[in-house]
Amino acid sequence: MNKTLMVIVMFIVLVTSSCVPTKDLKYLQSNHEQKDTLVMSQLVKKPYRIQSNDILVINIKTIDATLTEMFQVSDGNRNIVNEQIIYFEGFNVDDHGNIRIPILGEVAVLGKTTEEIRLNIEKRLLEEYFNEEAELFITVKLAGIRYTINGEIKSPGTNIIYNERATIMDAISNSGDILITGDRKEVIIVRQYPHGVEMHTVNLLDRKAIESPYYYLQPNDFILINPLKQKSWGTGTTGIQTMTTIITALSLVTSIILLSRL
């Protein structure tokens, strides 16, 4: 009787410890003391500043259609801009922080916002080439937010979100969500800075994650989702999977014992 009770207890312990609990799967949880409030870090509110290897899409329009075509990024027949066209015809920021555009040549953009770049280009074109009658209209945008995500994610790889601002949750949703075996508590962000590369960790189980300056993506971010310990155990991530594994193991052991007694 004691042996039977011990086996039952061990079975329950294995099942409960091997499963991934619901609290490890729910995003942005809050405790009872937290209230639903609009939260945004002052760091998050700061506009993104251009770095090396970023790609800019610059459109310059005037009343002269010929001049306008020099700055358009399109396939010529359709008003569609895709990733390949952006790569070959966009304005890439070189290692010195410059882009090279028609008429103006080298333009320093490193550390500047897209609005600052727009104003600078507009000012130079009006001073050096056009006049007020040209009705100059300029837009400067990042060519989407490129990121790479790997690990316990449904669709790992490199993707682009065509938006001026995106969050880690956007990247995860865009990649099919984190697998049940993924560690949502310690999502690693590898981010490039002018001084080098840094690694940051965000706990997506905690609602306070939205206050983190790393909750919002920056171009060329690398997101790593490490596995939970339950995956390495190999007993299953749900109660049914674990129970099936244990029953199979017990059946195998029982069969070996019975055969050895023959």
From TrEMBL:
Limits of the Polysaccharide export protein N-terminal domain: 45-139
Coiled-coil region: none
Entry keywords, A to Z: Membrane, Signal, Sugar transport, Transmembrane, Transmembrane helix, Transport
Keyword Membrane appears in the UniProt entry: yes
Pfam families: Poly_export
Matching InterPro entries: Poly_export (IPR049712), Poly_export_N (IPR003715)
Source organism superkingdom: Bacteria
PROSITE patterns membership: PROKAR_LIPOPROTEIN
GO molecular function annotation: polysaccharide transmembrane transporter activity
Chain ranges passing through the membrane: 239-259
Protein's recorded name: Sugar transporter
